[in-house]
């Protein structure tokens, strides 16, 4: 659940190289292809990828040297989803109170079966004055729904401009911090962003 703390928002949404993913619908599944940055380097450790919501596994798929194709259900039943106001802070404007939503986690499965490591779409850039850090995750919504507004957290503003379409959406969160003043501004949006890459969160 999205918390009103800087570190919690970053960890939840939860990406300086080319971002790569594509989506294709068929009659009963949605095929989403993603490419893990330097994915062949991890093939000795991982051979499968599991996609899951907070309540349900959506399937296990071949790792394929980081060239991953997810075949996700076209529809996720409402019982496995949440109302938008359960996932996002209460001060935001939610356009569709009937929409049911959840985030998707992607986890690499270790070959020895001993555990999993999450992969996310990450970004990190910095210079002497500014630092930019971001993460992106897929969200599923059973109806169109916009989540908008501004929330002040700690020493900065979080600007929400999420426009979910029915189905799977990639939601980006990125924070730009002024290293001199310590102030920052964070954006959470479905608008496509550059500079994100898929990678294991303990290996990027």
Task: Please provide a written account of the structure.
The protein is built from two helices and 16 strands. It has one domain. The N terminus is likely disordered.
Précis, in short:
With 204 residues, this protein is mainly β. Helices cover 5% and strands 53% of the residues.
The helix-strand sequence is HEEEEEEHEEEEEEEEEE
Tally of distinct domains: 1
* Percent helix: under 10%
Strand count: 16
List the helices and strands and how they pair.
Blueprint: H1 6-12, E1 21-25, E2 29-35, E3 46-52, E4 57-62, E5 67-73, E6 82-83, H2 84-87, E7 93-94, E8 100-103, E9 105-110, E10 116-126, E11 130-141, E12 145-153, E13 156-164, E14 167-178, E15 184-189, E16 197-200
Parallel strand pairs: 13-15
Antiparallel strand pairs: 1-2, 2-5, 3-4, 3-9, 6-8, 7-12, 8-11, 9-10, 10-11, 10-16, 11-14, 12-13, 14-15
């Amino acid at each position: 659940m999205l918390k009103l703390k800087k570190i919690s928002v970053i960890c939840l949404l939860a990406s300086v190289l080319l971002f790569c993913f594509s989506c294709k619908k068929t009659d009963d599944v949605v095929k989403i292809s993603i490419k893990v940055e330097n994915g062949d380097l991890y093939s000795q450790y991982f051979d499968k990828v599991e996609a899951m919501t907070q309540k349900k596994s959506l399937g296990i798929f071949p790792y394929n040297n980081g060239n991953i194709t997810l075949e996700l259900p076209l529809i996720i039943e409402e019982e496995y989803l949440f109302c938008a106001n359960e996932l996002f802070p209460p001060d935001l404007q939610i356009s569709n109170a009937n929409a049911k939503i959840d985030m998707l986690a992607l986890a690499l499965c270790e070959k020895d079966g001993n555990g999993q490591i999450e992969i996310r779409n990450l970004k990190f850039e910095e210079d002497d004055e500014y630092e930019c850090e971001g993460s992106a995750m897929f969200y599923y919504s059973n109806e169109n729904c916009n989540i908008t507004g501004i929330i002040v957290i700690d020493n900065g503003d979080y600007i929400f401009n999420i426009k979910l379409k029915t189905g799977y959406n990639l939601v980006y969160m990125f924070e730009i911090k002024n290293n001199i003043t310590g102030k920052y501004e964070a954006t959470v949006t479905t608008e496509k962003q550059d500079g994100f890459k898929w990678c294991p969160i303990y290996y990027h």
